[in-house]
Design brief:
single chain; 266 residues; mainly alpha; 2 domains
Amino acid sequence: MHSITSFKRGSASRGDRGPPWPNFGSGSRASENPEYGNIFMNVPSDPLMADATEAERIEADPFVADITRLLLTFLSVVAIDAVVVSLMTHRLRFWFPLWLDPLWATRADPWVIYSQSYFAGIFMIPILCWLVDRDFLAQVGAAARAAFWLPCVIVFAFVVWWKGSLMFQYHKHYEMLGWAALTGVIWTAIRLAGILPQWVRRLTRRKMLGGLLFVVALFFLVMSVLDPLVQLGVQRLPWSSGLAIEMGFFIPAAVVLMIFSRRLRA
């Protein structure tokens, strides 16, 4: 009796607050107590996790998603060529072998050879033009779309003629077909797998296209300076028709692409 009376007196001295441990009564939940709300729920209020979860729910623009997968395909092909195939053949595969060895084409066993993996990007020119037509020119007239497609066809035909002639010069035309097949396989695999980085989901199509044109224009400008500098200044090679064609294409193309990039990103 004495112990029961002491328990009642202790409870009364606490103001009938219940047991000394929190949230143990029947029907109570840990989430109702702000002090212990996250003990059993185990859901930390991390802003980075919240942003990642929100990004997963954001549906990317179709143009942004397709361009991103094109870029992933191109980078994958280049990586396979520069790393995997180079290790398999014990020769460095490089887009500009003259930079490293001016006599590579005449050597019986060169350590660096001409690589054609950049054709993965050339094959994507018609796809890029089609994506722009689909997502930017759907509401314009036939004359405007024809004015867009005409330079696309001209540029694609010129690049295929220019780089394709090098393929036949160095007997690499069958290898070019192999890169075309590999590009198609990787592109299909990336699309079916739904691979898409989270950070691109917030991009608009104008920013995506403007950024892509800016990067391509910057590459053309750098190459129009760097390639002649290395060939003429470092390797002491004579001026060639290949350099003339390259600079005659890279510089005007870079200026046009830079203008469109600035307008899209404005």
